[in-house]
Amino acid sequence: MADKIVEFGFGSQTVKFALPAEKIINEIEGQPAQPITDVPAALRQALSNPIDSPPLKKLVAKGDKVAIIGSDITRAWIKYEQFLPALLDELNSAGVPDSDMFIVVGLGGHRAHTPQEDEAVYGKEVCRRVKIYQHDAFDKNSLSYIGKTSRGVEAYINKRVAEADKVILTGGIVYHLMAGFGGGRKSIMPGISAYTSIQGNHLLCMHKEVGKGISSEVGSSLKEGNPMYEDMLEIAALAKPTFLVNSVYTPEGQFARFVAGHWKTAWEEGCREVERIYGIPIAEKADLVVASSGGFPKDINLYQGSKTIDNAYMAAKPNGVIICFMECRDIAEPPEFSDWFKHPTLLDFEKAVRKNFTIPGFVAFKCAVIARENPLIVVTKPENVDFIKKTGMIPATSAEEALAIAKEKLGREDYTITVMGHAANTVPLYKG
């Protein structure tokens, strides 16, 4: 029986181990993408040739107050400093001076930026040219009511955005384990929405019946039929955005494409590009999925590693075994995630999430659900063993130990394997 040597990222190092070659049915990796070499030029090209929209220059005019919604520091990978000055220049050329435009940081329920963090996200030039306001999801006086969705969510958004003459959405598009995809309408919900509105929308991730956990309609790549996604669309439509500029990235984190134009259809084109690069069709799920986040920083802690867990789960058969290689050098960070693993039962966990929904809490709950459904072995540092046990996952400190546990759990020799070397980014798309 010939072996295949697999090499995975693990923190700042790599690990090598052998797997039986004839058992491997899928090796999931992202598709290569050509990086953009001139970012400002690529943005100007997208602005001049928008999707389902007139060019931005024809949508704004002298005298307009223009709100630009930007992502916060948790999305620093968007690299605003490389393209935002060109967007401001485009508005200038249409007759809108810097003094008539402003950025609202789409914080959702996150804390406000410091001035230093504004500079880190948007760049010194942008911070010098335009005013930057921090959205506050908890300040009722800074919010405006724009309507109610068909699912009963009362939509309140940032007052400055609601009162602006024109609104431009910006951000980056990646897979999202709740909303299907990031970017697009997420600038509005949760970006500049009231916390009560965010709670109402995000609770749609849960099954309608208490005790049944997470809705099966919610997950990476899922749009139509996903109640959270569809509710987000309704809220964004109520906000009436003028234009969208979103970016897609190569597996190495460089710009691959800008999409610009109509806030929904341009974003959908970006989602198709994300699927082309990161969505990997598979004909069959496997009995054993062996996955790595790809190393640091994607495996810096279990919260970041949750993307790997979720994507590996999508490639596993029901009751199949999952092995995830994640160093987790900061295992207990952030506490708003790790502190959720304290409930004696999944039902208690679920009720706590429903009562005080947070995204870290939901992600922690989903990890716990996956670990209940599929034996989930985490190869990590020896000092992390006790924490991993607390989550309901199975710790291992070497590839050999993990494979031995997996074989015991499988209980047979005729098993199949899927290998995912960069599982934090790649999403297996099974159409069965």
From TrEMBL:
GO terms for molecular function: lactate racemase activity. Residues 284-421 form the Lactate racemase C-terminal domain. Pfam families: Lar_N, LarA_C. Residues 10-208 form the LarA-like N-terminal domain. InterPro entries: LarA-like, LarA-like_C, LarA-like_N, LarA_C, Ni_dep_LarA. PANTHER family: LAR_N DOMAIN-CONTAINING PROTEIN, LARA-LIKE N-TERMINAL DOMAIN-CONTAINING PROTEIN. This is Uncharacterized protein. The lineage of its organism: Bacteria, Bacillati, Bacillota, Negativicutes, Acetonemataceae.
